[in-house]
Amino acid sequence: MKSLRLNLLGGVHARDAADRDIAIAGTKANLLLAYLALKPGKAHTRETLIGLLWSDRDDNQARGSLRQALWSLGQGLKNVDPCPLAIDGEMISLDPSAVDIDVSALEKLVKQGTPIALQSAIALYRGELLHGIRIRDQAFEDFLFGERARLHELIVDACKKLLDHQLQAGLTDQAVATAKRLLEIDPLQEVAHRTLMQQYASKGQVGLAIKQFQSCREIFRRELNVDPGAETRRLLDRIRLAQSDAEGVITRPDSTVREHHEDRGDRASAQEKPSIAVLPFSNLSGDPEQEYFSDGITEDIIAALSRLRWFLVIARNSTFAYKGQSVDIRRIGRELDVSYVLEGSVRKVGNRVRVSVQLVDTRSGAHHWAEKYDNELTDIFKLQDDITASVTAAILPKLVAAESVRSQNRSAEDLSVWDLVMRALSHYGRMTTQESEKAIEIFRQAVQQYPDYGPAHSLLAFALLVSGHVGWIPESDDYQYAAELANRALELDDQDPWAHLALGYLAFTERQTGASVREYMRALDLNPNFATAHGYLGWALAFDGQSEEAIRYFQQALRMSPHDPLKAFFYSGTGVANYYAHRYDEAVEWIEKAILERPGFTAAHRILCASFAQAGKTKQARAAMARLRELQSNVSIAWIKQHVPYTERAMPHFLDGMRKAGLE
Asked: What does the alpha-carbon distance between residue 475 and residue 634 come to, in Å, rounded to a whole number?
C-alpha cells in the first residue's frame, strides 16, 4: 500500500495510508513536494531545486531556504511509514513506490482510453494543477504554466473522446453531462456548445438550443472578440429552420451574427497578418527636453518590429496622432484596425532611466506581456538600441503565443494559413514526440492548402529537420522533402528570416558549419532581433566545438527573449558548449535546466549522459542513460554517428562520453 497520497489537481492535499490529512508548513515546501512527486523516481540536485524555487536569492540564502523546506517536509511526513522522501547528500527524490498521485493516475486512465477510464480521469480533474498557488519565481512559473497547459489539453482531449463515444453509442443524457463538464473546464470548446445545441433541439427544446448558442457567442466575443465558427452558426440556422418549418413561418439565417463577423474582418484573406500599433511612449520625467528620448524609442521599436514580417506594423504618422491623448485601447483598435497595441512610458530620475512597456489585446483588453527596463543613462544611443532590441525580441514569442491561443478556438473550416501556422507553433513549442508530430501534421496541411505561402514552407522544413535531429521522427523519412521546402521558401520570399533559418539548419544537419553560419547571419541581417537565429547560430558553433563563441550567441538569445518557448534549446546548447570546454559540471547545470523546461527533449538527455560520464559521475550517467533509452529506444553509437550532426573534429569527444555512459 502507498504510504502517501497526493492530490495536486485543484490545489495541494496530502494524506497518509489511513486517509488522515497531512499538514506541511510553508508554500515552498508544498511546491517542493509537488515537484518531486511530478517527477517520480527522479533524483534532483540541490542546485536544480534552488534554481527552480529560490533563483532570486544568493547561494547561501537559497541553500538555507531549501534546508528549511526539507525540514518542513520531514516534519510533515514524520509519521508516514515508509517515508517516501529520500535525501542522499546533494541528491533529493521521492520514492514512487510509496506515493500515489492523482496526476499520475489521471495520465494512466487517459492512456487506457476506455469509456470507463476516461470518465474516471475526468472525475479526477478537480481543477488546474496546484490551483490557487502563486509564486514569483519565474523558473517555477514557467514550469507550472507548461504543466498546466499539458494537463489541460490532456483532459480536454479525454472529454472529447468520451463525448464522441457517447454520441456514437446513443447515450445522449451522458453526452449532455460530458459536454457540460467540458465547458466547465474550457468554456471555449465549440464542440461542447454544438453538442448541447443539438441535444436540446432533438428534444424539442429549441429555446434552450438558441440560448446555448447565445451563451457561446457571448463567451467568444468577450474572450476573443470573434463570433462562433461557421459550423456552429450553420447549426443554429438549421435549428431555426426546422422550428420555422414546424410552425409554418419563414425565417432567415442569423444576420446579426453574420454582420458582426464580417464587420470584424475575421473572414479576411487567407494570408492576412495580425496587426500591431506602437503608441508614442509617454514622457513621465517632467522634463520636456526628454521628449526626444521617448519619441526616439517609439520610432526605433516601430522600425524594428517592421522587420518581423509576420505582423503588419502601423506607420509612425498614424500612431503619433494619439500622442498626448488618453484613448481607450479598444477604440484605437477599431480606428486603426489593429489586433494589438504596444504602449509604454519613459521616466528619467537623475542619471537613471526606467522604460515600462506593455502589450495589450485591443479585442479583449487583456495584457499579454509587460516589462520594465532600468538602466544608467551613460550612452543614450546605446541604451536606446538595447531597449529596442530587448522589446522587439520579447514581443514576437508573446504575439505568437496570443495568436496560437486564438487559433485553437476556431473551427477547422475557418482556419486561415496564419491560424494553421500559429496552431502548429503552439504544439511545436512543447517539444515532445507527440506534439512535434501534431505540429508537423498541421504545417503539412498549411503547405498543401496554401502552396504559395513562404512561412508555411520554411517552418515545416525547420520542424522536420529539428525533429529528425532530436529523434522525434525518423530523420531519413523527410530529409529530402525538408530541403525542397527550405529552398522553395526562399524562392517565395528571400527576405523572410525563417527561410534562411531553415536553410541554416539544413546546412547544420549536413555538418557544414560555414554554410550554416552564413545563413543564420543572413537571417540576423534581415532581423537583428531574431532571438531564435542567435540561438541556432550558437548550436552550429557548439557542435563544431567552438564553445566560447557559441556561448556568446546563446547568452544573446536568452537576453533578448528570456521566456522564449524554445529556450530549452538555448539551455541545452549552452550545455553542449560547456561540455566541449570540459566544464562538465556547468554543462550538467545547463542541461538540467533544459530538461526541467522540456522533459521530453531527447537531445538534452543525450548530452546529459555524456556530461555525467566525463565528470566521473558513473551512477548518475547510468541513470541518465536509462531515462534516455525510455525516451529514445533506438539510440546507439551508430545512430548518433548518422543522425547527430557534430562535425568531424567534435564527434569523437561526444562519442567518448556516450560510451563511458554505457551506450554501445
From this structure: 12
Q: What's the pLDDT score for residue 251?
A: 39
Range list for CATH 3.40.50.10610 in the chain = 275-406
User: Domain 410-528 carries which CATH code?
Assistant: 1.25.40.10
Q: What is the CATH number of domain 275-406?
A: 3.40.50.10610
β-strand 340-349 against 352-361: which pairing, if any?
Answer: antiparallel
pLDDT tens-digit series, residues 18-28: 889 999 988 89
What are residue 100's phi and psi, to 5 degrees? -110, 115
Mean pLDDT of the region 137-142: 75
Checking if the pLDDT of 517 tops 70, the result is yes
- Average pLDDT over every residue of 417-440: 77
Residue 111 has a pLDDT of 92
What are the helix (H) ranges across 186-248?
A: 190-202, 206-224, 230-247
Q: Quickly name the fold that domain 1-186 has.
A: Arc Repressor Mutant, subunit A (1.10.10)
Across-strand partners of 93?
86
Residue 259 buriedness (CB in 10 A; 0-12 / 13-18 / 19+) = exposed
Q: Is residue 253 predicted with pLDDT exceeding 60?
A: no
List Cβ neighbours of 288 (8 Å cut-off, separation of 6 or more).
none
From CA 462, how far away is CA 439, in angstroms rounded?
Answer: 11
Question: Which residues have a Cβ under 8 Å from the Cβ of 225 and sit 6 or more positions away?
Answer: 264, 363, 364
Gap between the Cα atoms of 24 and 408, Å rounded: 39
Element spanning 14, H or E? strand 13-16
The CATH 1.10.10.10 portion of the chain extends over: 1-186
Identify the band that residue 264 occupies on the pLDDT scale cut at 50, 70 and 90.
Answer: very low
Dihedral sign, CA of 638, 642, 646, 648? positive
Query: What secondary structure does DSSP assign to 399-432, as a single string?
Result: HHHHHHHHHHTS-GGG--HHHHHHHHHHHHTT-S
